[in-house]
Amino acid sequence: MNSVPPLLAQIYAFLVGACIGSFLNVCIVRWPHERSVLRPRSRCPQCGNQLAWFENVPVVSWLALRGRCRCCDEQISVMYPLVELVVALGWLLSVRYFGPSFTAFRVAVFGTVLLGVAMTDVRHYLIPDGFTLFGLGFALVTSVIAFFRGETLVFATPYDALVGACAGAGMIAIVGWLGEVMTKREAMGLGDVTLMAFVGAALGPTRALITVFLGAAIGAVAFAGVVIPIALIRRGHAREQTELALGSPPFETPLVPFGVFLAPAALLTLFWGDALLAWLTRA
Ligand SMILES: [Zn+2]
Prior knowledge:
The chain has a domain at about 155-275. The chain contains nine helices and no strands. The protein has helices at about 5-30, 60-65, 80-100, 100-125, 130-150, 160-185, 190-205, 205-240, 260-280. The structure holds zinc ion (ZN). Zinc ion binds next to loops.
């Protein structure tokens, strides 16, 4: 079917993925501050030195410069090469499992956008519209293209994509509203709603529902195992420091960046959602 040698296709996918990952870094860093991702060109945030092409090669430049700016010696976050590497490996794996196909391209883009969502949500507690609106448009348009190409693997049909977008957004809005009623504070942002519109368009309504449940489950485990203990330790520490103060410091429930859990849940559901559903509803 394909005349491209598999190994060459995989190397090509890895290199394209590394460049996409490099651009994803720009989106992760700039979109939360509502800055353009197209201009200006990348510079050192410390000394403003505009990066030359050889300082901008994914992964390689960071390693060659040992994680420091060439001009001012400022440390460059390890996030940059890691994101580039993860996206490059994601694109390689997509081509490995789905061949050099349109489906592989869609899976790779889906995973890339979800990584961007998780990164900005964990760093800034927000999900830029750039990711979710692009993802929603991409999912809808490619569902139509795939339909006419006869590639019906993995993703939702055009009809399911439309229904899924509405269902995903609606479900997460209800979950957020319930959370607000129970905790009496804003539990979920609009970013989670647009995220689930995008995920629903890619996966269809049934798997959008699975994603919300799976994301909540992953979130609950992480919340109980990591976030609350850390908050309690901090509270104990604060109490020691204010032993003369009246009363104990108030225990603030930490805000949960739900997108951090929805993003991996969506990716897991893309591959194993149907199997999970079959197992849950087995006779
Ligand atoms: Zn610098």
